[in-house]
Each structure stands twice: as structure tokens, then as C-alpha cells.
Amino acid sequence: MRRIRLVLTIVLILTIFFSGCTIGNTQFVFGEAANREIVFDMGSYGDCDRQKATVYLLIAKAEYEEIFGENVWQMQIEGMSMEEFVKNNTLSELLQRESMSALAENEGIELSEKQHESISDAADELYESIDVAKLAKYDITKQDIEDVFRAYVLSELVYDEIASMVNTEISDSEAKVITVRYIKVDESFKHESMTVEELFSQTDVVETDVCRGELAATLGSKAEDLVFSLEEGEISDILTVGDEQYIFKSVSAYDAYKTEKNKEVMLNQRKRDAFLAKYKEFMDSTECKTNDKVWDTLIITDFEGISFDSFYDICDKYGI
Q: Which residues contact 277 (CB under 8 A, 6 or more apart)?
């Protein structure tokens, strides 16, 4: 259950763009085009109709029922019914997948012949695993299922393509991680009455790993530069920041392992930032409309006798 386990980070990082009804110059107009069975319309980039939206919901339905059981729809979560909670999350994913697919088209990203074959084979397997009569009840065709598989592939491809253009060089100095102990002191602290070593033996001392930028955000860049210049075991002078005073002691002036791990974190953040910048630019220039009147007619508990519980297994099988 990859989405519930938050493996789909590519999608989840976009939540900020769908937290309201406006993205830059792009308006999400609810209730328009009610005479069409369209849930999400991106003009020349295509749309997501009722049938494809139902496929997204059926995938979510299978996920939650597998983890929580078929009685999951009687549960409440975050002050709302499970139905409402899952529908909100599913709509967010639908908007994100479909708009990222549109961005892929805008960037000229095309599926390879092998990817086309994998998507087609995956759609065939999922379609044939379900009673055709039950699919027909909801007007779902094999093409609808294939379109959702395609959206999954394209949304990840476009992220990888944009992220691949990021500068991957991150120096040790940029990513350096140190370990310090620090304590806040007041004006009553006197070197004569207590040595700094004695001070650091107290229980209110805090020990923590620190990356570049973290201290600068709270104590200022000068204080951070001073702390990062400490040699292992060295103790700082009293640092005054506003009305507060701190003393730092270096436990480790450079942690090679943690620094390498921090490089990975920094690189991933660079990739996310690069993607989000490109994505926002695209969405700001693209008119999109969602139709809540159609979406509201789709009720998860109405979809009885049909399950897409093999969706993610098929994704894994075909590398989607």
C-alpha cells in the first residue's frame, strides 16, 4: 500500500499547490461545466472524466479496506467520516497526477515503446481480473484503467527529468554536521564559582547534531560561524543573542557519516525545489477547472462487488 505508507513522496510534496482554489494565475473554478462529466479539465492538455476518477477512487477503496478492513467506512478520522477523508486525499492525488502528466507533455517527455507495452500489459491484467459486467456498471473501460497507469508513469518521469538537471555537487563544508552540547546561562553565572566543565556536567545540558543554517536561523550567522569553528572538546565564550546567553562545547567537530547523509537530504531538497519551481511556473500559466458537482456524485461505498486490490502489485510487476 504505497500511498498510505507515504512512499509516493513525489505526489505528496505538491499538497501546498492544492491547499486552496488558486495557484498563481491559475483558477480552480468549482461547479463550472456541470453539463459535462468532467472532474478535472486542463484544456488542451486533456481532462479526467467521471470514469477515470472512479478508477482512482477504486484504487483508494482497495487500499484502505485491505489495511483497516471492510468496515473502515464506518470509522471517523480527523473529525470527518472516512469516506470524506479518503475522497479528499484521492482528489488531491488525482489533481496532482493529472497535472504532472500535463507538465510532462509540456516538457516534451514521451513514453518509450517498452513503457507503452508495460502500461498496456498492466491495464490488461487489471481489467481481466475484474468482472467485466461490474466494470460496465460504472462505465469503466480498459482505456480508463490504462490512462491511470499512464498518469502514474508520466508523473514520476517528469519529476525525475527535472530533478536530473540539478547540480549534484555538495561540498563537505555545505553539508557539514557537527555535534555540540550547549546550555543557556544567565547573568549570575560566574567563571569563578563554577568551571565551564562543571557547568556542562549538569542535567540541563542539551546535546544535539547541527547542520549548517540551523543555528543561523535562531542565533544568527556570526554565532553559527563561531560554533562551527570550534575544535573537538573546545568550549565557546558566552554568546549573547538578544536577551539570552549560551555556551557551546564541541563534542564532534565533523561527523563524516552524518555529513554524507546530510548531503543526500540536501540533494533531495534541491531536486524538490527545482521541480516545484518548474511545476508552479507551468500551473501559473495553465487554466484548470475542477467540477465538484460531478465529483460529489461519486460515493465510495456505492462501489460494491468490485476491487482494484491488485493495482500496486501490478505496478510493481511492470515497473510502474
A: none
